[in-house]
């Protein structure tokens, strides 16, 4: 049975009508027109679908919509709108090839940078995000630059 789930999405209160068991990822893409978050494995293994739930990165392909009632969700669209410095750093380092992994990686890494995490901790966190193109070294270089900028402020 469908119901209406209400939550905050990138700072705006939204409602999605769907079965409570619908993965958040599908509600974001198909109901709420937020298509930046991507479907990869669909089983919680690749990180392509990473979003931020109440400040913590989570995979949205295996998170039921009912679990976000009343919560705060941030997606890559929110990070892009905010102009996070990691966006420019990724471009500077040409950190990506096909780019499919980047919304998830940007979402997780930007959140961890803003939380004050170290490069080592962020690298460990990104074990949850696969990049099949082998761009990890350039992605990490971009993250290292932004963490260094953050730590000199
Ligand atoms: S699509 Fe969600 S972890 Fe792979
Ligand atoms: S740039 Fe292609 S999967 Fe990461």
SS content category: alpha+beta
What global shape is seen? globular
Radius of gyration based on Cα positions = 15 Å
For the secondary structure, the number of strands is: 5
CATH fold field value of the largest domain: DNA polymerase, domain 1
Question: What low-confidence regions span 5 or more consecutive residues with pLDDT below 50?
Answer: none
CATH architecture of the largest domain: Orthogonal Bundle
Looking at CATH, the homologous superfamily of the largest domain is [2Fe-2S]-binding domain
**Helix content, binned percent:** 25-40%
Write structural notes for this entry.
By secondary structure, the chain is α+β, with helices and mostly antiparallel strands. The chain folds into two domains: 73 residues, Beta-grasp domain (Ubiquitin-like (UB roll), Roll), CATH 3.10.20; 74 residues, DNA polymerase, domain 1 (Orthogonal Bundle), CATH 1.10.150.120. It has a five-stranded mixed sheet with strand order 2-1-5-3-4, with helices on both faces. Strand 3 and strand 4 form a beta hairpin.
């Amino acid at each position: 049975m469908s119901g209406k789930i209400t939550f905050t999405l990138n700072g705006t209160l939204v409602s999605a009508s769907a079965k409570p068991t619908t993965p958040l990822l599908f509600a974001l893409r198909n109901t709420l027109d937020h298509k930046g978050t991507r479907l990869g494995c669909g089983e919680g293994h690749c990180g392509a679908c990473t979003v931020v739930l109440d400040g913590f990165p989570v995979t949205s392909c295996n998170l039921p919509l009912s679990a976000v009632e009343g919560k705060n969700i941030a997606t890559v669209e929110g990070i892009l709108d905010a102009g996070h410095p990691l966006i420019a750093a990724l471009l500077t380092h040409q950190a990506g090839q096909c780019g499919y992994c980047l919304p998830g990686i940007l979402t997780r890494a930007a959140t961890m940078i803003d939380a004050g995490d170290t490069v080592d901790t962020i690298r460990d966190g990104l074990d949850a995000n696969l990049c099949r193109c082998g761009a990890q070294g350039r992605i990490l270089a971009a993250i290292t630059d932004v963490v260094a900028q953050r730590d000199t402020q």
